[in-house]
Amino acid sequence: MHISWNPPSISPLPPGIITLDDHERHAEHMLGAAAHAYFAGTAADGLTHAANRQGWRSLTLRPRVLQSLTGGHTRTLLQCATLHAPLLLAPVAHQQLAHPDGELASACAAAAMGVGMVVSTLSSIPIEPLAACLHDSGGLPPWFQLYAQPHRDDTLALIHRAEQAGCAALVLTVDAPVQGVRDAERRTGFVLPPQKQPPHLADLPNRPWPASHAEAGLCQGVTAHAPTWADVEWLQKQTSLPLWLKGVTHPQDACRAQDLGIHGLIVSNHGGRTLDTMPSTSRLLPQVRAAVGADFPLLVDGGIRRGTDVFKALALGANAVLIGRPQVFALANAGARGVAHMLRTLRDELEACMALCGCATVDAIGPEHLE
Ligand SMILES: Cc1cc2nc3c(=O)[nH]c(=O)nc-3n(C[C@H](O)[C@H](O)[C@H](O)COP(=O)(O)O)c2cc1C
Fold it and tell me: Is 188 exposed, middle or buried (0-12, 13-18, 19+ CB in 10 A)?
């Protein structure tokens, strides 16, 4: 059955936006104070978020000169699909709070740039039109990020919905059993408007959170029912889709997931939005890579804002990276065009960094390119 979707609006890119940080600064004026607190916010004192940013910046590059760059490109293979650059849009909830086109604009941008997209359980727009948009625009099928539900029937309903929509993978988020301490949201009194409840949850038979929880704060009813390793094993039996875990940072947890036959891991501290004072992902990634070996699929996110950051993540063993907040800042600034500009900027910067370090392809990037 063909699912129809409305093409997103075309807005001009506001003048003066060149970098991802420009997008972030400009978005502060585009988002209201409460939405800005939600999207830009961190847990507690924001130390982990700051460490994520600083972690990539403080790594220094060791270029090799006089390497042949003939035929160079940024393409990479992930789950047998070709990404035009080693980038995926991270699952970021409630994107219609940033722009009326919401995740549809992000999907169009991902398709235009040939990169991946992970759709949140808490997406403002259902998975079916997003998958149709990606398909019809020549993009890659989406991955579906799963928050395990209090009732297993509801979790199953979400899995089946993702499978039927044509998703290429399931990503179970395991680092947010409860919501982090979100001071900025509380200061601005941020509350998800009742008409913006995520459709994937609104459609579930058991309606996961009571109204009073929804009023008290985002996703508390969802995250109060944290999955365990037993749920992961149960989940594996329910789907034929590749299962990824997002938010694994301890080498022992990584090995346990690998032993269970998990397809891949996303090394993530949720962009510093859950547990403050965790180490940066640039410190955690090499530990996880060492634990799982060279060939196990590993992605990373948190604080990646420059092509040099992407390069360093690959040098430390990631196969690709996910981009969180910059996608909603760019979305707020210029809808689909903004997100495409953000992705294009990262890809161009990565390409420049690769050429300057003497790497014609992403496979040529290694730890020897870091000091
Ligand atoms: C506003 C916002 C909403 C998010 N929603 C989700 C979500 O629904 N599911 C999830 O697994 N991660 C979610 N994340 C975390 C991102 O997927 C990602 O791990 C993080 O943003 C990466 O850090 P960065 O923002 O510095 O790039 C969210 C992040 C932000 C900023």
Answer: middle
